[in-house]
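Standup notes
- DV: blocked on the single-chain target, sequence here:
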Amino acid sequence: MAVAIAVRVRLFARLREVAGTETEALRVPPGSTLAEVYDTLCGKHPALPHRESVRSALNQEFADWSATVAEGDEVAFIPPVSGGLRCATT
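- DV (later): unblocked, structure below
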């Protein structure tokens, strides 16, 4: 059984600017949800907005945060139209 799986993350608009990259490869535990992928990404880029103000997509279709990712999936995060809280807690 795999210890981690690789997913490709695409970031759009403001998310791309904040993270300083359009795409990023992440390794996450098997069975991870889109929410867990985003939380992992926020660990690397804490200035990203909180996920409640972000849309998620899995393999080019909008998906619920509870959707499970698999090896080689493409995950995308689309920013809010305006505003949003940051990942970091203060």
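- Follow-up: The mean pLDDT is 90.
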